[in-house]
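Input for the complex:
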Amino acid sequence: MTTAPRLLTLIAELTYACPQRCAYCSNPTHLTRQGRALSDEDWMRVIDDAEALGALQVHFTGGEPLLYGGLARLVARARERELYVNLVTSGSPLSRRRLAELAQAGLEHLQLSIQAPSHDKSIEIAGVDLLQQKLKVAAWAKELGLQLTINIVLHRENVGELSELLALAEGLEPHRIELANVQYLGWALSNRARLMPSREELESARRLAAAAQERLKGRTDVLFVLPDYYAERPRACMGGWAQSYMVVTPDGLALPCHAARAITGLHFDDVRRHPLAAIWREGSAFQEFRGTDWHPEPCRSCPERHKDFGGCRCQAFALTGDTRATDPACSLSPHHGVIREARGARAPRGELLTLRRAPSVDRNLQ
Amino acid sequence: MASIAPLNQASRPRLRPGIRLRHDRSSGQLVLLAPERGLALNASAGEIIQRCTGELTVEEIATELMHIHRDLSLPELEVQVMHFLRRLMDRGLLTMEMTR
Ligand code: SF4
Ligand code: SF4
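Predicted:
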């Protein structure tokens, strides 16, 4: 049984600019082909229309959403519309005063990323060390009564330091610790041979996460999901393509998922040109892979298809060149070999250069 | 962290900061909003949570709900309310106000 698609979550990518340059960034690898940025007024309309369509929450993200000057105004608008207001951030640039303003405006949940427990590692992973700033921001968030999630993206460069990372995160007394795994799209795909952990490394990470779950019960939720490269079944892409999420990019394109912009051959509508409801219901990119009717074999006759929707479209495109293909992460996919190979093709430590986005040129960036 | 009062008839449950109730536009039902999840509430769950403002005690909440659950005695209803509240506490959504 599939339920009818319903927009629940608006993901507002306010800017692609960011003080960090993570080796696994999900922003487009080609930042040049961008249109004009949305204005505050455009964003307000997007927020209103998303809520009118049924959305219950908004994630302000980027890039770094703190680099968007009008953030507090958008937070206030979203809260006025009774949306649950999330901020997904690196924690910089931010003063206590500005965070208090955001909380005052209606911010409810701060999701703060932490890359590594040490200075050198932070630089290696994110191109910059913001750890001290992040620790301050976490403390402010708690003081201001915000819900706090510490998000740690795991990969080979930091998976060996998970105990230290967990100790660091626990000390901040967050409500949740999210141990995410890199999704090999965009920059992360270019750096895959460097970032891919081994099965053993993941297994010990899973054990550490389970121990933390036990230890922190009732205080901090600890979430850990096995990455799809090591699972036999794919992830349902965002709860299914165009089932409950809409991403709006800094330049106003409505996407069914963060990474969809990389898929060539899909047309994405501009939120300034069409009503959000029309894009959600009839937009060609949203309709293309909605539900299960479009599935080729082996998904077409597979009982799992209502659960995972055939996996990730962006991954199918990135790894097979065919957006309609079954996600190669599925062991039933005829392309599953590329996943097995990637697990084996891990570069010897220190041997590969990391490719990363250029430093952000943004006048807000001090 | 401040010490948390235990859950009994005299405790005063309150939603944690950053957890909020609203009506869902399409179903008209109450939903509980929290990071990464929205919980759709059935009518009786909604009746309980609406009263978790830190003002009322569990006993007072149960008393107010007597008219909806006519088949239950007050002690029975209290047990059910506490059972439900316990689950919300375990999920970090609810806290208990210290008795004033
Ligand atoms: S298609 Fe893949 S990258 Fe895109 S939302 Fe789905 S899972 Fe994420
Ligand atoms: S064949 Fe398709 S539907 Fe079945 S498990 Fe694999 S991806 Fe999912």
